[in-house]
Specification:
The protein has 389 residues and is α+β, with helices and mostly antiparallel strands. It contains eleven helices and 21 strands. Helix 1 links the parallel strand 1 and strand 2. Helix 1 packs across helix 9 and helix 4 packs across helix 7. The chain binds glycine. The site of glycine has 7 residues, from loops.
């Protein structure tokens, strides 16, 4: 017998939702559905919950630095990133109430730094992009930047203060999301792969009406059983093949006397101070899916970070690691219903998974509950992939 079709979203009944993947995206969607909207959810993940890219991240909420001046990306990526950043203050308050735990949210502005002519040119390009979009920012002379962040190296040439770019402690956020969901009578967390099956080409997951695929870089490879065979979800929607892996290596050092307090950016290097550590990142390695950091890459990151803040060279290293970002060609996530009715995707957030978690959760919940969609949100649908091809 064929399984019943997955329920259409535009109905008045409350769907039961299965979420495949317990990274920050899957957990944030579960939080939005179960805790804010009263929708029952089951979250499946055979890997340790919240320990993939969400754990590896640096927690920067950086629409300006990550998206304002990027070329060749989705035309509305910056707008989505700005909307995402605006949701974070309330999201962190709601999360703190639900979990009795802090997320380390800080609205303290980040600084983009320049130490030579090329970096100054890149900084001015970013400033012009922000001007064109009417986004607040301020170029600071080196003396003012040193007053704000005394750990900066003396040969600083220029700095750009970006009030849009705050931060959270990403590890605290995923811990709090898991705690909040464990407390919710409407959420079930299962440490196993979802028993997804297909009969006659139709997908089903017993006890659920709608499914969200949110397994980061391995979303396309989620397994489906069909006639005793294990196939991958990409066979149902080839757009999922768009999600590729981008390795990133990083380290953290202990706080010490005079260590930085501000999130600092310069080219591909960032320094993101948290309450209990200072994170330094990151490489971006297309096609690399390893979680093993290389000593040479870590030493190079530390040396480049110490060029910005010399004190970092003398602080004890706490941890080194490598994470795997899920990315797409237009550097924007796939958010929306797939080619399979009732199967949604939220993945491919590349460098902005933490920033975009609350807005992704809101979009997916609105879609699943049949609420009207803005053109901006619709533009991140996975159907754009087929349209471009
Ligand atoms: N968002 C910073 C990174 O992906 O390295």
């Amino acid at each position: 017998m064929n399984p019943p079709p997955l329920a259409p979203p535009h109905s008045s009944f409350t769907p039961k939702v299965a979420i495949l993947g317990a990274g920050i995206i899957g957990l944030a969607v579960a939080f939005e559905l179960a805790i804010k909207r009263g929708v029952p959810v089951t979250i499946y993940d055979p890997a340790p919950m919240g320990r993939g890219a969400s754990w590896a991240a640096a927690g920067m909420l950086a629409p300006a630095f990550e998206a304002a001046a990027e070329e060749g990306v989705h035309p509305h990526l910056f707008d989505l990133c700005m909307e995402g950043a605006e949701l974070w203050p309330d999201f962190s308050i709601d999360l703190a109430h639900a979990a009795d735990a802090e997320s380390g949210y800080s609205g303290r502005p980040s600084l983009a730094l320049a130490f030579d002519m090329a970096e100054t040119a890149a900084m001015h390009k970013l400033a012009r992009a922000l001007d064109a979009r009417g986004i607040a920012h301020e170029e600071l002379p080196p003396g003012t930047a040193h007053l704000l962040e005394p750990s900066l190296a003396p040969d600083l040439v220029a700095a750009l203060q970006m009030p849009t770019d705050g931060q959270v402690d990403n590890r605290a956020v995923v811990r709090a999301l898991i705690m909040a969901l464990q407390r919710s009578p409407l959420a079930t967390l299962r440490s196993e792969a979802a028993p997804l099956r297909s009969v006659g080409g139709r997908l089903s997951l017993e006890g659920h009406d709608l499914i969200l695929a949110a397994a980061g870089w391995s979303t396309a490879a989620i397994k489906v059983e069909e006639n005793g065979e294990r196939l991958s979800l990409v066979n149902w929607d080839p757009a999922l093949d768009e999600i590729d892996c981008y390795g990133g290596q990083m380290l953290s050092v202990a706080h010490g006397y005079g260590s930085p307090e501000t999130t600092l950016r310069c080219g591909t290097i960032y320094i993101a101070p948290k309450a209990d550590r200072v994170i330094i990142g990151a490489t971006v390695e297309p096609g690399v899916a390893t979680e093993a950091p290389e000593p040479a890459a870590i030493s190079a990151l530390l040396a480049r970070a110490a060029r910005l803040c010399p004190v970092l060279a003398d602080l004890p290293i706490i941890e080194t690691w490598a994470g795997i970002r899920p990315g797409t060609r237009d550097r924007a996530p796939l958010i929306g219903e797939t080619a399979v009715p009732g199967l949604y995707v939220a993945s491919g957030h590349f460098r902005n998974g933490i920033l975009l978690a609350p807005i992704t959760a809101r979009i997916i919940a609105d879609m699943m509950l049949g609420k009207p969609m803005s053109e901006l949100h619709q533009s991140f649908s996975p159907s754009r992939i087929g349209a471009v091809a």
